[in-house]
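Page 37, continued from 36.
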């Protein structure tokens, strides 16, 4: 591996666990991007989710209100906005909103998008190949005993820090698969317990996420009837996440919120391995191009994607290489090595990244429950670092000027992407509420 990255100022700051913003100098005007994937891939994923909607509704009656479409609400959070401005003595110009993937049906996190989508795509492929289904069929037939028995010969495996396992585990069990989830050391006990209740085999590792993934991939390869959902490389997961952008467009239209040259949209996404925030960013850029500005947020103890992008080394570098432990209270973000696939796609698209110390996760979490009565898990609260610091760092102020937005920030919209929380048990919520870190 190249060693010259060590002298980069950004790497030195990361290795000292400093809170920073990093602006992506490789971002280019959207019209000049030549991506190998595009809107037609997102359309295909959306159509597949539509075909499965009757089946989802049948397996998960709680999705009935939305006719089997798993989607979250977008809400203004004016009290939180005011609270953040007053507490942190900053301005958040424009309107702050919360995209509540924390409350997505079935998995209670953003993983209900990519994870469930990939399970369904695999299911469709198997069923079509076996002649159990045509794409014109009513997909509720997949819930018949004959089909469930068919799927029960197959195994789905996945490596997870928790939420991906929950989403894949619950969805796969509903289809009828055997499921094996390889959990990293930081995964919370309640997530393991919940999965076991769904009949999922949970394999526990003492190591971090990357090791759990590696071992899961190895075991799955040995079994021809096993399918491994590969969070580090999966284009399917990515497209499942990307569909969120089309749904968001509809919601913004309904709420009469403009996104154009005079009304920029800022989106702040907590990032782990990169699939979820990357897929969503890709979708948003396909729709709004240069008028949307996407920032990832990572903990100072595990800034894997930032490290990969800033050095250009992507998955050839991990946070342990610069002396970090990767251990963070943000369990959903406790990833040492980023997805190389996602990092490469993000190079011309992503605006930048913020990092934050773990203690703020709990502060922002309490602030949101106190002001808006919405509970998020600590990882998800990383998103608030974006709007708080947007006008606090010189680098972001310069970004705003350079992109000609100096005079239009009052008409901006900001979306903090809430990535998880609704499945967190009551006693764990109380524990989080009473957690204060130095
Ligand atoms: C998984 C997860 C993320 C980040 O998604 P990646 O695809 O790992 O980058 C963010 N927040 C929560 C709560 C998550 O579970």
């Amino acid at each position: 591996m190249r060693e010259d990255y060590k002298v980069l100022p950004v790497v030195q700051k990361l290795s000292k666990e400093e809170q920073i913003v990093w602006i992506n100098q490789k971002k280019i005007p959207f019209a000049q991007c030549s991506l190998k994937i595009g809107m037609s891939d997102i359309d295909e994923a959306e159509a597949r989710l539509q075909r499965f909607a009757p089946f989802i509704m049948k397996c998960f009656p709680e999705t009935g209100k939305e006719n089997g479409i798993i989607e979250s609400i977008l809400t203004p959070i004016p009290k939180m906005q005011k609270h953040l401005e007053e507490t942190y003595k900053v301005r958040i110009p424009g309107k702050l909103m919360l995209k509540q993937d924390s409350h997505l049906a079935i998995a209670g996190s953003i993983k209900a998008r990519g994870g469930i989508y990939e399970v369904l795509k695999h299911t469709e492929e198997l069923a079509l190949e076996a002649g159990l289904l045509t794409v014109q069929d009513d997909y509720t037939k997949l819930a018949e005993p004959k089909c469930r028995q068919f799927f029960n010969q197959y195994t789905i495996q996945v490596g997870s820090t928790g939420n991906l396992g929950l989403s894949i585990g619950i969805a796969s069990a509903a289809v009828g698969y055997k499921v094996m989830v390889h959990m990293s050391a930081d995964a919370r006990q309640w997530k393991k317990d919940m999965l076991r209740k769904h009949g999922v085999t949970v394999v526990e590792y003492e190591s971090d996420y990357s090791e759990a993934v590696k071992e899961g991939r190895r075991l799955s390869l040995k079994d021809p009837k096993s399918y491994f959902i590969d969070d580090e490389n999966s284009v399917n997961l990515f497209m499942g996440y990307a569909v969120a952008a089309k749904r968001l467009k509809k919601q913004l239209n309904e709420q009469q919120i403009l996104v154009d040259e005079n009304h920029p949209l800022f989106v702040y996404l907590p990032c782990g391995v990169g699939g979820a925030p990357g897929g969503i960013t890709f979708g948003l850029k396909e729709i709004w191009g240069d008028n949307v500005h996407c920032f990832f947020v990572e903990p100072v103890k595990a800034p894997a994607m930032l490290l990969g992008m800033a050095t250009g080394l992507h998955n050839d570098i991990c946070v342990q290489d610069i002396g970090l432990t990767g251990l963070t209270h943000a369990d959903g973000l406790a990833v040492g090595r980023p997805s190389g696939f996602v990092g490469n796609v993000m190079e011309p698209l992503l605006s930048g990244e913020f990092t934050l110390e773990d203690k703020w996760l709990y502060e922002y979490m309490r602030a949101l429950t106190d002001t808006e009565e919405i509970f998020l898990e600590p990882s998800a609260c990383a998103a608030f670092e974006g709007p708080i610091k947007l006008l606090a760092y010189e680098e972001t102020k310069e970004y705003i000027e350079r992109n000609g937005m100096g005079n239009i920030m009052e008409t901006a919209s900001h979306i903090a992407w809430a990535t998880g929380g609704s499945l967190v048990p009551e006693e764990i919520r109380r524990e989080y509420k009473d957690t204060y870190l130095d």
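The pocket of pyridoxal-5'-phosphate is lined by residues 109-111, 163-164, 270-277, 332-333, 377, 379-380, 419-420 (CB under 6 Å). Flag for discussion at group meeting. The chain has a mean pLDDT of 95.
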